[in-house]
Amino acid sequence: MVRMARWMVAGVARSRGRWLLVVWVAVWMSGFEPPLAGQTTTVPPEPPARQRLSVAAARARAELLHQTISATLGTIHRSYFKDGETLPVPSRALEDVFYRLRRTAQIEVRWMAVNTPAMSLKHKPQNAFEKRAAAALARGQRTFVQVNQGHLRHVGAISLFTSCLKCHLPASPVKQRNRVAALVIGIPLASPPRGAQP
Questions:
Q1: Residue 38 falls within a domain, yes or no?
Q2: Is residue 197 part of a domain?
């Protein structure tokens, strides 16, 4: 067996034809059989895996998701959104992504107003937790996290730059500092079964 393995390694180094032979032998030894014409293969479904997600893992996911969405928003805003054009506002375009996250991964994501007027009624803090989070972020805190009823809820600040404030504070003649909005992320601590739809 060792002699055969050495021959195969040396053969791969010497010629492409031998390499193809090695691949063919490996496939043959694994028992792979291509389906016959008109025949379909099915793989039995895995039983639904319902595993507990730790608070640390949920927090790491929320942080990564927040950083990803924040970076995406900035990139889209700089690269594609131009004043005066009829393109959708980048934050509105990302709401389609939030919808898909809710449908496919049961992760709730939404925008929240902090220390500027809400651009939509949906963006106002909706409960006591979100009101406490908005107050903390308005004071300069960057994140506000709570674990409650099987969910980790993460509220992270999104800095509003001058280009953002043209819409968020259009009538303000004074230069505004430390204006933020927030991204609210809710992650279930018990992961849903694979492929589950709510």
A1: no
A2: no
pLDDT confidence tier of residue 30, bands split at 50, 70 and 90: very low
How many Cβ atoms sit within 10 Å of the Cβ of residue 66? 22
Residue 189 sits at φ, ψ, to 5 deg, of: -80, -25
pLDDT at residue 173, rounded to an integer: 57
8 A C-beta contact, residue 187 and residue 155: no
77 in a structural domain: yes
pLDDT for 81-109, tens place per residue? Answer: 676 666 777 788 889 899 989 998 899 99
- Total structural domains in the chain? 1
Rounded distance, CA 114 to CA 135, Å?
7
Query: Which CATH number covers residue 113?
Result: 3.30.450
**Beta partners for 151?**
148, 188
Tokens for 17? 């034809």
Contacts of 162 (CB under 8 A, 6+ apart): none
Owning domain of residue 66? 55-188
The residue assigned the tokens 């739809």 is 197
Which residues are CB-contacts of 173 (< 8 A; sequence separation ≥ 6)?
A: none
Cβ atoms of 130 and 184 closer than 8 Å? yes
* Residue 142 DSSP class: S
Q: What is the DSSP letter of 169?
A: S
